[in-house]
Design goal:
globular, seven-stranded parallel sheet, Rossmann fold, alpha/beta, 10 strands, single chain, 7 helices, three-stranded antiparallel sheet, 248 residues, 31% helix
Length: 248
């Protein structure tokens, strides 16, 4: 794993976007198309703003959605489908974006539908973050590192739900859904490269737990230590508890 630390979130987002764009252009040159996984949340704002400005033939890019709340309408400000449509789809018009329908009547059928779609392809890059509780996607601790299904139904713990309130997506924890559809850990790790974007001091303990301690389901994102091509993008605040971290 390569760890890069920047003075500002803007610099972090710009450099991460440049690396992402290089991966996409290389995939298009080699295979004619690029397959990506996109995350959501406040941590991804600067990265996505910089990414959509990169010189990429977006008609040759297909995205897969990382996670989504169960039962939350797409009209809700916290809807991840809404987030991705506004921040990616409407801005660059990719060839396709396979969004998770969290309002599906049969949630497990929706997991199966998405699983079949993503299993047909090799993912060039996964863009992810780390939650305040160390989660990767919505795989809260203790995460299941062994499940094979690409998409799974998960229960959200209190820390995860409180983070959503803290970021301003909901007014109160009682409004936050208790379940979500999430990409599984094993599916995320199948990506050729992982770009992990984690700014802000509130993520500092999770960053330390996931980078400096042994791999453990209690720190789900620690599994990224075992991925051969992961780049971790931090700012000075999120890296503040690390023993050593070189700035860029």
């Amino acid at each position: 794993m390569e760890i890069k630390v920047f003075n500002t979130k803007a610099a972090l987002g710009q450099r991460a976007a440049e690396q992402a764009a290089d991966i996409v252009r290389r995939a298009i040159a080699e295979r004619g198309i690029a397959y990506l996984i996109a995350a959501t949340g406040a941590s991804q704002f600067e990265f996505l703003d910089a990414l959509v400005q990169q010189k990429i033939d977006w008609t040759k890019v297909i995205f897969f959605h990382l996670d989504e709340y169960v039962g939350l309408p797409i009209s809700h400000p916290a809807s991840f489908r809404r987030y991705l449509i506004e921040r990616i789809v409407e801005r660059v018009r990719p060839r396709a974006f396979h969004l998770i329908n969290g309002e599906a009547v049969h949630v497990r059928d929706e997991c199966s539908r998405l699983g079949e779609l993503i299993s047909e392809h090799t993912i060039d890059a996964a863009f992810v973050g780390i939650g305040e509780n160390g989660h990767l996607a919505f795989n809260d601790p203790p995460a299941d590192f062994n499940i094979d299904e690409p998409y799974i139904l998960v229960d959200l713990d209190a820390a995860c739900r409180q983070q959503q309130v803290g970021e301003g997506w909901f007014n109160d924890i009682s409004e936050v859904p208790t379940q979500a559809i999430s990409m599984s850990i094993r599916q995320i790790l199948k990506a050729r490269q992982v770009i992990c974007i984690v700014p802000e001091r509130r993520k500092a303990k999770a960053v330390k737990d996931c980078l400096e301690y042994e791999v453990s389901p209690m720190h789900p994102a620690s599994i990224l230590q075992e991925h051969p091509c992961t780049t971790m993008y931090l700012d000075r605040e999120s890296a503040s508890l690390l023993s050593r971290a070189a700035e860029h």
